[in-house]
Amino acid sequence: MALAAASPGGDEGLEEDEDELEQGLDEAEAEPEAGSGAKAAGSPRGAVLTRRGITLRVLLRDGFLEPAHGVLSIYYLGKKFVGDLGADGTITWQETGQVFNSPSAWATHCKRLVNPAKKSGCGWASVRYKGQKLDQYKAAWLRKNQPNAAPVEESLPSEGEEEEVPEEEEEEASREGRAPVQDLVAAKKLEERSKKQQCKSLVEPAGTDHGHPAKRLESKPRVPVRYCTLGTRDSARNPQTLVEVTSFAAINKFQPFNVAISSNVLLLLDFHSHLTRSEVVGYLGGRWDTNTQLLTVLRAFPCRTRLGDAEAAGTVEEEICQSLFLRGLSLVGWYHSHPFGPALPTLHDIDVQMDYQLKLQGSGNGFQPCLALICGPYYHGNPGIESKIAPFWVMPPPEQRPNDYGIPMEVEVAYIQDGFLTNDVLQEMTLLVEFYKGAPDLVKFQEMWTQDQTYLDKLKGSLASRTPKDQSFAHILEQIYSLLKLSS
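^ thats the sequence. predicted structure below, dont judge the formating
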């Protein structure tokens, strides 16, 4: 049985009002108010219903709407949500299978996933049925059933709605009598989702190649831009444009969650990032404590795949999902590298992270953050030999500017020094060396990185600060370093 999700805050009252109106509707129909006068033309029910009393059930009953899959949609701050309309007037969100009793409840829930500060959903002006606002169907019902009533102004959508509907998509939807195709990854109903299925929904990001690892070789240096200079989205702008991150303090906000990261996580992703001159990617496993609002990152899962190899990517991602599930961990984020550039997000990285955040937040009833880490191993602008590993999170753009890019926010984290290297980490390091052996973009570790340091010296120096104090595994690390020299 699907879960019924009530919207928190002020809109919960709206949803309850609509439910009460629907529950009292039959009584009103059976016993019209005394002295209400002649019944409205075209319907015996019209005289007893106010505009607010017109619910989805009323519109379904009177033939203005028909129950169907995928006929409801919301566009908000660049994101799209698709829902099914039930014969009983409920809305089932396709992404999770959650059931909502009113447009207001569904709209508020979806908007808060994108923008947690959102207070209300403006449901009837936000939700569209086959490309047309529900408000228009309500107005049509009034024109038919209460022709003598004073016209009522249509509700205005909240800021960020209208701009999100591409005209050609809306025209096509109206012409074909359907809602535009959903652009998010469809998922099974909420109660059927295991951690493994939750993982699967995140490791297949919309709009990115399955072979995201080794995405490209680093070319000429790129100069970062400030977020405030970006303005509205521009398709002519290079998606690889680097963007400076913003601190929460700079915009007078508190970081919405706390983060703690294990040193073994940093060691493994740093090692992975050093191996190749191409970008690498991996996923982060951990736990989210809703009581303390603490996200703990306990494990890194490198993706051993190549660009364009979708079959191998799918296999590796499936293994990662199983590994997370067996360890009792949740998928809490991802990492990737900028081998010779600064550890700053690109416009593409910002969009991908925003998609990830939405999918993780939409996979349950409550808020769950998704963390992104960028590692810049060989950037000569780093202050020392250590790689720069930068955590970031994306804040939605202001509602009055829905077509702007998301805002990349710097995330403050606490680092937990592990007491020893686990066998998992050592095994992953060995597997990574084997995977990249003989690859044309494998870093030649015997060559010079600076005038007095080889690439292997650079790797060792960066990992030194992340290596546990227990040196019992030092000889195994040396064996791995020796394998690297032979491989390159």
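Residues 28 and 275 are 73 Å apart (CA to CA).
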